[in-house]
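Tip: read the tokens left to right.
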């Protein structure tokens, strides 16, 4: 079993370069099959496992994918010859459902097994289906949770989303770019990666306007062409390093970021007493003394991102005073609390609220990464704690953080990956 082992207590210092955005990459890779041409995607976080799986799905559909270098791929979508994606591919990640919108856009047909991903609570797709149906598709869920979507002709239409959903906004956008006429998505998500997807589609010749606001207008075009496109920096990876800098009372320059995307995180760090200095494409975060308390409520963008909630909880666990965290997106996002409390944190969860009573010090302990962002929180906790922290189930972390051990090492952390025998295997159990 592979673990991340951290000897904590060293303030992080130095500079770190942020990779391309995972969530943008996961929408842009399926979008590439909408063109019958070649797209070159740059600044792609190629070594994270979610991106690797999306590339395998492209291969399963018949696309040819060439790796140009560590962060650039070429997708030749001319050879795509299937609209079917099996469960062995989709079970690994939720974003595999973006292929439903992309395949509908390309073929008017998609047969895609319902996805897996982090277990954060029930993950309905009713809004995605509502959008596809508004565009004229028939959608049925068949045996073994296969989504079967068909459309003779996709026709632009108004689509009102009942709640702000990143997934539904992406999927409807993908299905609409080649539909006949105008689609208007109301109550659309405004996350930076929605804007990035729209920019990518427009680089291929699509006509998408309003991305980044809650009304997106898509005028369908007949054909899309290839393009070269560079993905935006990862807002959540940047936020994770920002919080890690503060939680270890360090001083870190976080490079290759868009400071505007980080405002909700910067604001909360400043409220906790950290100093956040913004540059054109970098931010410096430092904290010289114990953090102060602050309250957090997760909200769709531009609110505080649910994907930063577990990491921020580590800083609040060490803060002077009691903070309240309110989680409004996912029902099962507090699973990391049990692990943090093992390290000496004092957090009580009541439904969608967590009451975090700050303690002076966390202590290293064996813990596990319950999901991707919970894993990031465990790393920050281990870096800030005294003694040794061993994190297991790190495959969750590998889903979304590129070179995470090397990046933290370069900031002075004592952190490594290690293969340790699994005690269950030693006992002969599976
Ligand atoms: C959500 C987050 C995103 C984060 C990701 C992984 C928001 C708005 N979205 O995106 O920032 O990166 O989780 O943690 O913050 N819903 C429905 N029906 C649908 C679709 C969604 O009821 O058809 C509900 C979901 O159950 C959830 C909420 O809407 O409570 C937001 O879902 P959605 O934004 O689609 O989820 P993700 O795209 O996974």
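Filled-in amino acids:
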């Amino acid at each position: 079993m592979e673990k991340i082992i951290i000897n904590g207590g060293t303030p992080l210092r130095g500079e770190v370069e942020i990779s391309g955005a995972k969530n943008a990459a996961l929408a842009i890779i399926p979008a590439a099959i909408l063109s019958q041409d070649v797209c070159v995607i740059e600044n792609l976080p190629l070594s994270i496992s979610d991106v690797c799986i999306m590339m395998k799905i492209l291969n399963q559909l018949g696309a040819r994918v060439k790796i140009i270098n560590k962060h650039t791929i070429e997708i030749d979508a001319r050879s795509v010859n299937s609209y079917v994606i099996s469960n062995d591919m989709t079970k690994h990640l939720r974003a595999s459902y973006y292929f439903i919108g992309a395949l509908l856009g390309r073929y008017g047909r998609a047969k895609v097994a319902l996805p897996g991903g982090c277990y954060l609570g029930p993950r309905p797709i009713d809004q995605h289906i509502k959008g596809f149906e508004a565009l004229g598709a028939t959608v049925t869920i068949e045996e073994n949770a296969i989504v079967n979507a068909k459309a003779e002709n996709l026709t632009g239409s108004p689509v009102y989303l009942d709640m702000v959903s990143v997934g539904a906004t992406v999927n409807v956008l993908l299905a609409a770019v080649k539909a006949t006429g105008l689609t208007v998505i109301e109550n659309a998500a405004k996350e930076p990666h929605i804007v990035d997807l729209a920019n990518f589609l427009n680089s291929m010749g699509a006509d998408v306007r309003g991305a980044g606001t809650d009304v997106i207008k898509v005028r369908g075009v007949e054909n899309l062409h290839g393009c070269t496109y560079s993905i935006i920096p990862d807002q959540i990876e940047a936020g994770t390093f920002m919080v890690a800098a503060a939680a270890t009372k360090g001083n870190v320059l976080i490079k290759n970021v868009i400071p505007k995307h980080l405002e909700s995180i910067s604001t909360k760090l400043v409220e906790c007493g950290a100093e956040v200095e913004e540059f054109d494409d970098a931010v410096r975060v430092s904290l010289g003394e114990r953090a102060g308390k602050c309250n957090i409520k997760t909200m769709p963008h531009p609110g505080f991102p649910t994907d930063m909630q577990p990491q921020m909880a580590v800083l609040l666990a060490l803060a002077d005073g009691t903070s309240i965290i309110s989680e409004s997106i996912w029902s099962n996002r507090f699973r990391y609390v049990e692990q943090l409390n093992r390290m000496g944190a004092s957090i009580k969860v009541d439904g969608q609220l967590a009451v975090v009573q700050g303690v002076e010090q966390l202590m290293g302990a064996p813990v596990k990464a319950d999901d991707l962002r919970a894993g990031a929180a465990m790393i920050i906790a281990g870096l800030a704690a005294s003694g040794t922290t061993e994190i297991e189930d790190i495959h969750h972390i590998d889903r979304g953080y590129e070179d995470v051990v090397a990046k933290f090492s370069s900031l002075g952390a004592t952190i490594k990956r290690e293969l340790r025998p699994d005690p269950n295997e030693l006992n002969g159990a599976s």
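The mean pLDDT is 95. The first strand starts at residue 2 and ends at 7.
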